[in-house]
Amino acid sequence: MRVLIAGLGDNKEFGLKSLQAAGHFVGVIDLPHRIPVNLCDWWRAGDRFSVDSMLEAANSAGFTWDAVLCWEELSTDIAREVARKLGVPGTRMPAGHFRDKGLMHGRLRELGLPTPQLGVARTPRECERLAEGRFPVVVKPTDYGGSGGVQVVLGPGGLAGAFASAAALSASGRVAVDRYVRGPEYSVEAVTWAPGDTQVLAVTEKHLTRPPYCVELGHVVPAALPDEDREALAAATVAALDALGMEAGVCHAEFRLTGEGPVLMEIAGRPAGGQIPRLVELATGWNLNLAELAAVVGERTRPGTPEAECAAVRCFVGDGETPFRHPVTVENASRPPLLGTLRELRYFTGEGTVHRVPRGPEDRLGHAILAGSRTEVLTALAALDQGAEVYRGD
């Protein structure tokens, strides 16, 4: 098939390689510096926030596309409109339900599903009213991507700054205010083959920085959970997708697991970022990118053979004080526990620079991907962490 990715986002090489390895012709429209031209069969620069720009680029190919996908959070609704105007299959879900956190949680509340959202603020005063007496709260843009602009606020003194930061990133200027939910954080990766037909593919354990920013530093697949907790997370994901009207595509749902059960933080109608698709394939055999394409065109796919029992990623960040040192070196990469488990290593900056405490994904300085038995992977993660605390959200 000729598959157009209308909005690629950052670091999506795994998805491109997966589609090409399956024999598909892959085209990409995005900002030119985001397009790895050596990993696609066709590409054009385009404005990922403009349907007209995307359409003009897509039509310039001179042939018909068979499907349109989007892996850039900010462009998912635009890409679906591009697919509709081209008359080809794309992901199917109501516009806004998976992009606007106000609409998302409003719909969940209407149907009686648990949500942490206290409301949506358009002014600092509205933000203060929603947060009053409920600290700590989480302030975030209603319609941005990833963890950008998200901040835990412990008291009234931090509210104005958090509102301003979130509003500056929100396309609509609207800011969501959530109660802070305590409990370990997980994500659920699932595919909806057709309306009412959702299959959970993996549950991911998430590692974070401490508040106020709670930036994701790592993931482990599969999460080590009792069966009842895994089943509760899966059931909560299916209920949320049904409530929000998912018809065909994949989702990345983020939960805090409390004593009363899972509480949904948010859910995206696209494959996960943060190297999670690669971890899922290593540990389960499921390829999220191929599953998404199959669902979009009305087919089904099956998992391949897992390469490992467990897979994980550790992202490297600064602390605002210590010069950055590469955690993986020639010496420790050549012996256990990294020898035999290290599958990929990348650094985005050199040694010796002091980097700020991370506020979002843009502050990640590199990553290591690990795979092997659970014991091997956890031992390798501990070696990379060098005794530093792993925060889960509890």
What's the N-to-C terminus distance? 45 Å
Number of strands: 16
Q: Evaluate the radius of gyration.
A: 21 Å
Count of DSSP helices?
11
Categorize the overall geometry.
Answer: globular
Name the descriptors.
394 residues; alpha+beta; eight-stranded antiparallel sheet; four-stranded parallel sheet; 16 strands; 28% helix; 26% strand
Structure write-up:
With 394 residues, this protein is an alpha+beta fold. Helix content is 28%, strand content 26%. The protein is built from eleven helices and 16 strands. Strand 9 (185-194) and strand 10 (197-208) form a beta hairpin. Helix 2 packs across helix 3 and helix 5 (124-131) packs across helix 6 (159-169). It is globular.
What would a concise description of this structure say?
The chain is of the alpha+beta class and 394 residues long.
Write the layout of secondary structure elements.
Blueprint: E1 2-6, H1 13-21, E2 25-30, E3 42-45, H2 51-59, E4 67-69, H3 76-86, H4 101-110, E5 117-121, H5 124-131, E6 137-141, E7 151-153, H6 159-169, E8 175-179, E9 185-194, E10 197-208, E11 216-221, H7 227-244, E12 249-258, E13 261-268, H8 276-284, H9 288-296, E14 310-316, H10 330-333, E15 342-347, E16 366-372, H11 374-385
Helix pairs in contact: 2-3, 5-6
